[in-house]
Specification:
This protein has 471 residues and is mostly helical.
């Protein structure tokens, strides 16, 4: 029934367009997350008339709330997405929530409206990450998975760069509302990409039976995990049990695997590190150097731009030599760089207190930090995707491709959101109690612990030329 295909089906369902649409969605989510950071001080002090001494406290509370809501939302999003025949619908719902949340933040007349808007953005971001990465994993073969994830992380990083860089510069050069006009344009582009996209699983009736997204044509392959309609009876169904028991068994198997726990730990620590730095950087730079939003935005630019350039090559490197070596090297290399970041402006190091020397050391350390981060960012998602593909080969019934990816990336989003909650909470508390330098000492110790964990339990994966597991 080729005549029933929608307009432009071939190119709208192409792998290139699907992956591009997902990366646009990830870009938009991270753009909006970082957009608020450099201009939050202005919003709290100038628009909401709060005392400047409260700025760091409210910044910490707002970013911690964002992480907590993402932590709660991710499993719910994955559960609801399992029950939908099209994963495009959750993405569109997420976009609507993100649009409303962004407007509430921009218009916020008081603190509680600011928090409600951020909560909506966090819920929408959780949906984007869970469903988006699941679709990405479904549409990329195993030997190119690391590189594809690396390219996706380049777009994620571009959002992280663009958000804070553009917002601070636009605020200082053109004003508040000119700055907020840009996120709305990004959201329009995002909704256009999502409306055009057609999921590859929703194909013609001939192909539908082979799709993990279709629940009607091939109950033996997918119904047990995808629909509420009982599947055709099979001998192994009696041993596996019903759909509810199967889901619990899935999580029991996954969370008892040290490779999975190591991957999730990597996600939590990377997220904590990035969100913690984002939380304290604006206030620290204003106190140490007297910088305003434009120069603060440039520091975010210095931190994130190397990520854009090096995320793809880092993913290629993981595909070629495995995950463990580059990841362990990355964590170890981050330790001295993070410590150097805390030295300028600290009274214990007068040799770095000079205006020129301090700024040079800080900027150089930040650029080097951004150059090393691609070695550890995205590792958790790649490791989890590999583990799932390996397990699917052993138990295709339990680890069915599409819904398994939804669940595994919901775990990734839970870990990421946990880090986004813990990072600002811990760094904000340490910053106010003991200062920026000792806060960086705590982050360096965390990197050391994660390096040891990665060396002990992270996979050394075979090269792409090795035989692949069938999925």
């Amino acid at each position: 029934m080729d005549d029933t295909k929608p307009w432009g089906y071939k190119w709208r369902s192409s792998r290139l367009l699907v992956v591009s649409s997902i990366t646009v969605a990830l870009f938009a989510e991270t753009f909006l997350y970082g957009f608020l950071t450099p201009i939050l001080s202005y919003m709290l002090e100038e628009r909401l008339h709060l005392d400047p001494s409260q700025t760091q406290t409210y910044t910490t509370a707002l970013l911690t709330t964002h992480g907590f809501i993402g932590l709660v939302s991710a499993p719910i999003v994955a559960h609801l997405a399992e029950k939908t025949s099209s994963q495009k619908k959750p993405l569109l719902i997420a976009l609507a929530g993100c649009f409303v949340g962004t407007l509430m933040i921009a218009l916020a007349p008081c603190v509680w409206v600011l928090f409600v808007g951020r909560i909506l953005q966090s819920m929408a971001g959780a949906a984007t990450w869970v469903v988006g990465f699941a679709l990405l994993a479904n549409n990329v073969d195993k030997k190119n998975l690391g590189q594809s994830m690396g390219m996706a992380m380049s777009f994620v990083t571009a959002g992280m760069v663009g958000g804070p860089t553009v917002s601070g510069a636009m605020l200082q050069l053109f004003g508040y509302w000119a700055a907020w006009s840009l996120p709305l344009v990004v959201l329009v582009l995002d909704i256009a990409a999502r409306l055009v996209m057609i999921e590859p699983g929703l194909k013609s009736p001939k192909a539908a039976g082979k799709s993990p997204l279709n629940n009607d044509e091939d109950p033996e392959e997918s119904t047990a995990l995808l629909s509420d309609t009982p599947p055709t009876a099979r001998p192994d169904d009696c041993t596996v049990g019903n759909k509810h028991d199967l889901k619990h068994e899935y999580y029991r198997v996954m969370l008892s695997d040290p490779r999975v726990l190591t991957a999730l730990a990597n996600v939590v620590v990377v997220s904590s590190l990035m969100s913690g730095i984002n939380n304290t950087l604006p206030v620290h730079l204003r106190q140490a150097f007297g910088w305003k939003s434009l120069l603060i935005s440039m520091m975010f630019f210095c931190l994130q731009v190397p990520n854009i350039v090096l995320s793809g090559p880092s993913g290629w490197l993981r595909d070629r030599i495995g995950i463990r070596g580059p990841t362990v090297f990355g964590w170890v290399a981050l330790i001295p760089l993070i410590l150097l970041l805390g030295i300028p402006g600290d009274s214990h190091f007068p040799w770095a207190g000079g205006d020129t020397a301090g700024k040079s050391i800080f900027t150089s350390s930040l650029i080097a930090l951004g150059s090393i981060l691609p070695l550890v960012r995205g590792v958790g998602a790649v490791q989890l995707a590999y583990v799932v593909k390996d397990m699917e080969a052993k138990d295709a019934h339990m680890f069915e491709a599409n819904r398994s990816n939804l669940r595994v990336f919901s775990m990734t989003e839970v870990g990421f959101s946990l880090g986004m909650m813990l990072g600002p909470l811990l760094t904000g508390s340490l910053f106010e109690l003991v200062g920026f330098f000792y806060m960086t000492v705590a982050l360096a110790i965390t990197c050391l612990i994660q390096a040891v964990i990665s060396w002990r339990w992270l996979d050394t994966l075979p090269s792409p030329e090795a035989p692949e597991a069938s999925v």
